[in-house]
């Protein structure tokens, strides 16, 4: 029971760290691409650029994630079939 709680806590910390890293990457990449000269306020062109940049970045992350999980699932299925063929 305690082991399961600890594992779940670690999983949550990993998810949180991944989200924080993703946000940092989006911020750096989109800020560099969209903000020419930082001011007190963003102009509409900068806001539009940031929104489009973030949408595009998140869409890319989603495609990569889907491909990764599909590949991982195929690998697991292949491993399971290989074990079944060997009699494990």
TrEMBL record:
| Lipid bilayer topology | Peripheral membrane protein
Annotated Tim10-like domain residues: 10-68
The record's annotation in InterPro entries points to: Tim10-like (IPR004217), Tim10-like_dom_sf (IPR035427)
Kindly state a single biological-process term from the GO annotations of this entry: protein transport
User: Which Pfam family, any one, appears in the UniProt record?
Assistant: zf-Tim10_DDP
Cellular localization per UniProt: Mitochondrion inner membrane
Please tell me one Gene Ontology term that the record gives under cellular component: mitochondrial inner membrane
Which UniProt keywords are listed?
Chaperone, Disulfide bond, Membrane, Mitochondrion, Mitochondrion inner membrane, Protein transport, Translocation, Transport
Top-level lineage group: Eukaryota
Primary site of residence? mitochondrion
> What is the role of this chain?
Mitochondrial intermembrane chaperone that participates in the import and insertion of some multi-pass transmembrane proteins into the mitochondrial inner membrane. Also required for the transfer of beta-barrel precursors from the TOM complex to the sorting and assembly machinery (SAM complex) of the outer membrane. Acts as a chaperone-like protein that protects the hydrophobic precursors from aggregation and guide them through the mitochondrial intermembrane space.
The Swiss-Prot or TrEMBL record describes its family as follows: Belongs to the small Tim family.
Record note on domains: The twin CX3C motif contains 4 conserved Cys residues that form 2 disulfide bonds in the mitochondrial intermembrane space.
Q: How does it assemble?
A: Heterohexamer.
Protein name as it appears in the record: Mitochondrial import inner membrane translocase subunit
Organism this protein belongs to: Drosophila kikkawai
